[in-house]
Each structure stands twice: as C-alpha cells, then as structure tokens.
Amino acid sequence: MVDSLYYLPNDIGVSALDCGKAFRLLSPQEKKYAHYLSRAAWYGGLAVLLQTSPESADIFVMLQRIFRKQTPSTLAQVATAAGLSSEEYQAFLVYTAGLYANMGNYKSFGDTKFIPNLPKDKLEALVKASQAFEEQPAEMEALWNSCSCLLYSLEDKQKQLGLGDKGITTYFSGNCCLEDAELAQKFLDSKVNFCHHSTFEMTNSCFRTQAYAANENQRKMLEEYCRSFTLGSVEAHKKGSSYWIKDKGPIVESYIGFIESYRDPFGSRGEFEGFVAVVNKAMSEHFAKLVSSAEVFLPELPWPREFEKDTFLKPDFTSLDVLTFAGSGIPAGINIPNYDDIRQSEGFKNVSLGNVLSVAYATKKEKLTFLEEDDKDLFVKLNGPSFEVQVGLHELLGHGSGKLFVQDDKGKFNFDQSKVMNPETSEPVSSWYRGSETWDSKFSTIASSYEECRAECVGLYLCLKKNVLSIFGHEGEDADNVVYINWLSMVRAGLLGLEFYTPESKSWRQAHMQARFVILRVLLEAGEGLVGLEEVTGQDGKPDARITMDRSKIHTVGKGAIHRFLCKLQVLKSTADVEGGRALYDFYSTVSDTGTQNFLRLRETVLLRKEARKMFVQANTKVNGDSVELVEYEGSAAGLICSFTERFQDDAEQLDADLLDMSKRDAPCW
User: Fold this and answer.
1) Could you name the active-site residues (predicted)?
2) 399 marked as binding residue
C-alpha cells in the first residue's frame, strides 16, 4: 500500500458548484459574455498542465482519449472484464478526477504528488482494454509508455514540487538550483516585458467576447488581454488590469492571466488562472458596507500612519457565485491584481466566492478533529459565518493595506526618508525598494506565505471590533461566539498545516497553511493559558491531539500578541528588509521535536487523522442558436470527468496534438 499522503481516497468529497440560479438571471448578452470568457479561461487553464510537471500533459491527453470514447459507467464494464475490482475502478475514477481538478498530478493545495491507488498492472490492463486503445493502439501505447513510469514514481525528488534536489518544477530546467533562479530573476527584473507561455485557443475566445462587453472599460480590458496573450506582453496585461479595476460593479465578473506565484519555487512567476462569476447581490451588501467603512478601520491597524498607503482607493468588493474557475484550484476569496505599482496607485478588487465558501467550509461534527467536545457544536454552527468575516477582512484590509517604501528609477522617493521612523528600531528608515524591485522579487521564496500570514493576522485583529462584526449581522453573544470560533479555527488550521510540511527538505509546500502554523506558534508563545495544545490518546487508542483556547484572554493576551507580530511583519515588508523578514518568518515556521510542543510528532498525528480536500464539479456553457445553455453535472468523480471530456469536445484532436507537441518540446529541459 502506498503512503496515504500520495493518493486520493475513494471516499474523497466531490461537490457540484451550484450557479444555476445566478446564471439564469443573466440577460442573453451577459450569458454570451460569460460563455466566451469561460471558454478562454478553460483553454488557458490547460497551460497549467505544462506548468506543473513534465508528465502532466501526457497523462491528461491519455485520460481524455479514454473517456471521450467511453463514459465512466460504460468503462466500468470494461474494467471488470480486465480484472479490476469495483474499489480499484473507483480509485481510477478518483485519480482522473483529481488530475482534472488540480490540472496536473500534484495537489494544488500542498504541492504533493498523487498517484493512482491501484496496481500499475491493473491500470495498464484497463488502458489497453479501452476503446480508445482498440481504435488507436500505436498512439495509445506511445502515450502509456511516455507517462506510465512517472505517473507512478515516488522517488524522493518526485514526491513534491520544488527547486533543484528538493522537488520537481517546470518553471526551471531540471538542473537549476536556487542560485540559478536568483540569477534569472535579476535578468528578468532588468526587462520590461517577458512572457514564455503559449495561449492555445484562448485568445480567439477573448476576441469573440468583446462583442458582448457591457461597457467601454470591458472592451478595452479584453483588447489589452488579447494583446498580452498574443505578444507575451506583461505591460499589456497590466493595462488590461487597470481597465478591469475601473469596471465597477459588473454583473459578470472575471479575471484572466498568469496571476498567482505560489507554485513557482522561487515565488515570482505566475500560474495561469481564469474565472468567470456572477454577482450575489444579497451577500455583496455586507462587503460594500465593509468597503465604505474601510477608512475607519485602517487606522486601527498596529503600524504608524506613514506605513499605510497615502490614500485608500476604495475597491469593488463583491460576493460571487463561480460559473468557471480554470486553473489548479479554487480559492475562497481573491484580492487582485498582484502588480504592486497598480495596487499602490490605482487600487484593486476583492471578491469572495460565495458558492465555494458554502460547500468547501461546511463541516460535519463527526469529522472534526483536535477540538474539545464542548467546542464542536459551536464550531459546526459558526465556522462558515466566521470564515466569511475572516475572508472579508483578509482580502480587503489585509492584502489591501500597507505601503511599500520605493525609490524609483529617477531617484524619487514615495516617502520622506528624513522623517519616517522605524517603530521597531526607533531610528530613521534605512532600506526600501529600488527601481524595478517588487515585493515578490525581493522576498522571493517566502513572499507568498509571509503576505498570507500578514493578511490572516489583520483578519484576526480587526474581527475583535464590534462595529466590524455588526456589518456582517453579528451582535452581542453571537458576535462574541464568532470571534471565538474564528480564532479557534485559525489555531486548528495551524495544527492541520503540519500536513503540508516536508521534514526531509525542511520546507513548506503550501503558503496559507505555513502562514497559519506561524500564527499558531505566535499565539502559543504568548502564553498565559491563551492557547493549549496537548498530545493525547484518542478513543481508538491511536495518537491524537487536543486544542484549547481561553476565550476570556482573546481580547487581551491574544490581541497583544497579534498587535506586536503584525506590526513587525508590516515594517519589515514596507522597508524591504529581506534579511530581517526572513529571520522572523523562518523562526516561526520552524517545525522541530524540541521545545514545549513536539511538532514533528504532532505532524504524524495530523497525517494519521487528515481528511482529503474536496474537489469541485463545474458546469459548462453551450451556445444553442441565439441562446446559451448551462450544462450541469452530478457531484461525483464521474460527474467531474464528464464535465472535462465535454468541455473540450469541439477541437479535441487538435488540442491533444498541441499539448503533446508542447510537452515534447519542453522535454529536453528535464
């Protein structure tokens, strides 16, 4: 049996994202706008296969060919005849669904490889008994031979994504190390435009979308996106993002491009994602109130006024029901664009993905781990509402706050270096960003997690404000309970985060979970009985753990600890103090077996009791005459597979050929 860390269990949660009601309320023009944007997003999302691992594209094509010829239910009969048990066939369906959901054979949340939970010879027998193999034996044999070894390989380097000997990456050649990545970054920083990604059929869909744009900002936005994807121009994408920010309150919201840098081992290059969603007006009212009060809450944050943006550019903040989210995974909330200069001067947008939140964070009492029995009912009741508050604060006032001190290429400063004092040293600020340096390029490997930690701390800190909670409809005892569950949830998430730590390489594989572990460490360090973490024996006789929190000390001990830590995080970020920032963050990120808590042993307990992350089934859209239809699927591995095979039916053979050609051209790099 394979270590459970490296396969997806047969009973993994699979849920359909419900957007039917929201889609049906759209006008015919809005439906076509959403349709063509969705097509662009899905085709662009295929680039993630090439961004994940050398074998991902070949595996994808092989699975697509199998399921285009036979549905999951039809193939089940073939599997039985080929000698597979029902459990083994279900494991194959789950693996296929997982590859589609993650756009590759590494988990998008955690960067761990997953392999089929059935013997290799059984999978080979099924592949060779399929109709696809029967009709194209030479091509399918070649596909199987090209990917079957890597598909199952769990050599140490291939167990996770990483740079050099720490893992697999397709962002760099196979022989690149950290020093090579730093050299490449210095070269790229000296260039204005650089992009090396192919764009598939995506650009054609963006062109067609323009005809259904609602306004001039949308048309110009799409025009710049097309230029970016055609020419590889980052500057064009930045211009498109500027128009996107100006497009306030659209009914159909979207964003597309190479956006998040979490999976680049160096933390700089963006992975493709594209989403299309419909505004949930009722839920958006909460966020609109939060935006209108933002300038009241920002001064409450624990850093001097000089460390905050000169002016707060009020963003859109809406709750959206996702129609399409193409890429390696679906987040609960987003704060974009990620271009620092645009964020500082023009602003940003926040979105909370309502139909994702309602499914992803629904919790069953019997599956709750590491909490006291007395806390479980309240956690089940308020985990969703408290997370909604946390997401709102995290995205708007977390990622949306704080100033970067910059000296531009002409020598001009955006702050008064003779007057601004560093509150940590009581001395004048002595470091800043210069020229083309950005947050990501300076802080590189820790940038993503550090920033997520800062945003999470802002959420914990500001949720203590009664006027914040009232915006979300929480008053009195209910408000107090929401605060308690929000803080308790963060502590529990910090413990669960140990799943995403690799002891062999002493590295973290997931930015958000590393951030939450850091916060757990900070709150444990605060002492005075605020947080307890004890190793116990479970009712099943196996190792377990119990988290306790003294809710009476959240507003005193807890608030003080987060106040001090959050101020340090912001000051180090503002002043481009990489050395100080890395020392602080690495200290709290350390997982060891010494000290009050044996975190390495606790990690084993977390792995023993972990629950697999849910997968989402998304609908397709289809033009039928002058109308656009929504095609929905059941929430199962089979439903997820059907959604993907039908998604790329129109030009399947050409798409297969393009993917295989690009994969082959990259092959010499590995």
Assistant:
1) 395
2) yes
